[in-house]
Design brief:
Number of domains: 2
Structural class: alpha+beta
Strand content: 15-25%
């Protein structure tokens, strides 16, 4: 049974009565703490536990400014963009996200927070801030972007030795899954206890999921979230990944969102469907007669023009680039086409009111806030600059030249030398992001891989 999903978005907690109402609810439900969390640069949840009574009373919560830019290794960059003093930022809750935590062993709530500088402005290093700033540019133009992600991931057996490959879990049939079981409902049901608990968890978190399916890889799955406001949908994607990991651990499993976690198996993506509506709620990608609009073509033109410079957002780790293999339905260029999965930008068949672009570049390892910010910023720039796209791909897009960075180092260099990335995502953020990713790569370079031991040890 799912936990109660009470939304307190109507409460600003500015009046004593509002605070008393929330405090009373916490007391009646036996709620001890609130998880005050936010997504760091990787998309990993960070924050603090706050006593429920203090949260209801509007207690101030602060955290170090550098935390949103913490490396996956736990290190911090010392790039000059980060102040030596490492000042505080305030954590400010978005009450629309306040829900009961479905993985806590005692009654507990959670809320997604914004990071605010002490002067009240959004912290430029926080991924949610980056997305909010992009959405604000749409609002200034009288437009509203709409986004829907498709998120893929693997369920594996518990991992106790990182030096060993990930293994398939044992299903209710008593054996691990073998072969490709795309769209198999029987395979989906093999891990029914996890899915039952996970479904209840995301229902309780208010995550608006659409279809669930078994993907091509062994124990690989895809869940589509319903379209909506980018910040709200990014919050849901962030909480979706968090819940998947937590519920999987409760069932002796790992939920794995690496782009290419298992050699020989399919990579995992986060396809982003996107459209734009005007003040009257009309999809600006379609003309009144139902045909494609100039704005639609300009949007695609912007994606084609700026995506190569932003590739490090869609593919943020060395592992990410293992996914882009010709013939794998993972794109190798930014060509576009109608209902063509060999192109990086696909236009699905749809009625005019639902005309949209599917950006197929982001891996499942991409930070949802940053991936949405990157694609929306590029598309808006295309509209504003009236960028013209290339001709739509006919046939096999893999037969065309690669026009995207093929390695982490190339993508890092391209963003570092870009004339556009800072304009699209913010100068301070881009400089900080490059510093963090560079530090992570330096750490990676110090590792000796199994490939080196396997082939070089006996032969060189």
């Amino acid at each position: 049974m799912s936990a109660p999903a009470l939304s307190w978005s109507h409460l600003k907690l500015s009046r004593d009565a509002d605070r008393a109402t929330l405090a009373a609810h916490f007391r009646e439900a036996g709620v001890r703490d609130v998880e005050c969390l936010f997504a760091d640069v990787t998309g990993y949840p960070r924050g603090k536990l706050m006593p429920a009574a203090s949260f209801a009373a509007g207690g101030e919560l602060r955290i170090c400014q550098a935390i949103p830019m913490q490396c996956v290794t736990g290190e911090y960059s010392y790039d000059p963009i980060f102040p030596d003093s490492d000042p505080d930022v305030r954590l400010v809750p978005d009450l629309a996200t306040l829900r009961r935590s479905p993985w806590a062993s005692v009654p507990r709530y959670l809320a997604v927070h914004d990071c605010h500088e002490m002067d009240g402005s959004l912290c430029e290093f926080a991924p949610r801030s980056v997305l909010k700033n992009v959405v604000a540019r749409y609002a200034a133009a009288g437009l509203t972007p709409v986004v829907a992600p498709e998120i893929e991931f693997y369920l594996t057996a518990a991992m106790t030795d990182p030096a060993q490959p990930l293994a398939s879990p044992t299903g209710k049939g008593g054996r691990p899954e073998v072969g490709q079981s795309a769209f198999s409902l029987n395979a989906l049901n093999e891990l029914a206890p996890f899915w039952d608990a996970f479904h209840a968890a995301i229902d309780g978190l208010g995550i608006r999921a659409d279809t669930w399916l078994h993907e091509v890889g062994e124990n690989q799955y895809e869940i589509n979230l319903l379209h909506g406001d980018p910040v709200a949908v990014a919050d849901q994607a962030f909480l979706f990944k968090t819940a998947a990991r937590e519920i999987a651990l409760q069932h002796g499993l790992n939920a794995v969102f690496m782009a290419k976690p298992i050699s020989g198996q399919a990579g995992s993506s986060m396809h982003l469907h996107q459209s734009v509506v005007d003040g009257a709620g009309r999809n600006i990608f379609s003309r009144p007669d139902g045909s494609a609009s100039e704005a639609f073509l300009h949007y695609i033109g912007g994606l084609q023009a700026y995506t190569p410079d932003l590739m490090l957002i869609y593919a943020p780790t060395v592992n990410s680039y293992r996914r882009y293999v010709a013939g794998s339905q993972a794109p190798t260029n930014v060509q576009w086409g109608y209902d063509n999965r060999t192109a990086g930008l696909r236009v699905p068949q749809s009625p005019p009111v639902a005309r949209r672009v599917e950006n197929r570049l982001a891996g499942a390892d991409a930070n949802p806030y940053l991936a949405m910010a990157a694609t929306l910023a590029a598309g808006l720039a295309g509209i504003e600059e009236r960028r013209q796209p290339g001709e739509p791909v006919q046939g096999n897009g893999y037969a065309l030249a690669r026009d995207l960075p093929r390695t982490f180092s190339t993508a890092h260099d391209q963003m570092a030398h870009s004339e556009h990335a800072a304009r699209l995502l913010g100068d301070g953020f881009v400089q900080g992001y490059l510093a963090v990713k560079g530090l992570e790569h330096e750490h990676y370079q110090r590792e000796i891989s199994a490939w080196e031991r396997r082939y070089l040890l006996p032969q060189v």
